[in-house]
């Protein structure tokens, strides 16, 4: 707990957040780690991190994220504002960080699935911009496994 304060009775911890920060962790090395099995997606193929870093910058700003929205999402609309996005290398661990006003169902995991395709050379650098324009989930990559996803912060 970092801070405590009194809030109005109508306060809703889920809906009153101004932004949320998620991290997704990818262990990128030939063999899995028993320490990361529950906490990162193991991708044994070497990834082109520079290409991945370049590809994600088009996600910043206000966009329709329909291409990254899972079936069954009950959001009123698919438009979200992404404040920041980054991909950092921490030894063999890649950490994708994204901050946005809100997220669609499986949005981060669907972005990461497409991002790994960029890293493997299966998808071009311009693919994220094309996916945003397409607004079609079928054109995006697979959904990354759940074990690498972490809600890091909710900003009020």
Structure description:
18% of the residues lie in helices and 28% in strands. The protein has 156 residues and is α+β, with helices and mostly antiparallel strands. Strands 1, 2, 3, 4, 5 and 6 form a 6-stranded mixed sheet that branches. Strand 4 and strand 5 form a beta hairpin.
Sheet/helix structural class: alpha+beta
Global Rg: 16 Å
Q: CA-to-CA gap between the ends?
A: 15 Å
Shape: globular
The largest sheet, given as strand count, sense and whether it forms a barrel, is: 6 strands, mixed
Let me know the number of strands: 6
Content of β-strand = 25-35%
What's the number of helices?
3
Helix content estimate: 10-25%
Arithmetic mean of pLDDT:
95
Q: What letter string, H or E per element, gives the SSE order?
A: EEHEEEHHE
pLDDT < 50 runs, ≥5 residues? none
Defining key terms:
3 helices, globular, alpha+beta, 156 residues
What's this model, at a glance?
The chain has 156 residues and is α+β, with helices and mostly antiparallel strands. The chain contains three helices and six strands, in the order E-E-H-E-E-E-H-H-E. The longest helix is centred in the C-terminal third of the chain and has 13 residues.
């Amino acid at each position: 707990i970092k801070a405590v304060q009194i809030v109005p009775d109508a306060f809703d911890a889920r809906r009153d957040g101004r932004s949320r920060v998620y991290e997704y962790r990818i262990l990128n090395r030939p063999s899995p780690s028993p320490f990361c099995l529950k906490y990162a997606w193991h991708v044994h193929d070497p990834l082109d991190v520079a290409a991945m870093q370049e590809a994600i910058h088009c996600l910043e700003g206000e966009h329709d994220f329909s291409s990254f929205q899972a079936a069954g999402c009950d959001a009123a609309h698919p438009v979200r504002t992404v404040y920041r996005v980054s991909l950092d290398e921490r030894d063999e661990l890649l950490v994708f960080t994204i901050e946005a006003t809100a997220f669609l169902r499986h949005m981060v995991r669907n972005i990461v699935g497409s991002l790994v395709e960029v890293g493997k050379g299966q998808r071009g650098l311009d693919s994220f911009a094309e996916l945003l324009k397409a607004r079609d989930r079928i054109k995006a990559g697979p959904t990354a496994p759940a074990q690498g996803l972490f809600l890091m912060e909710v900003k009020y």
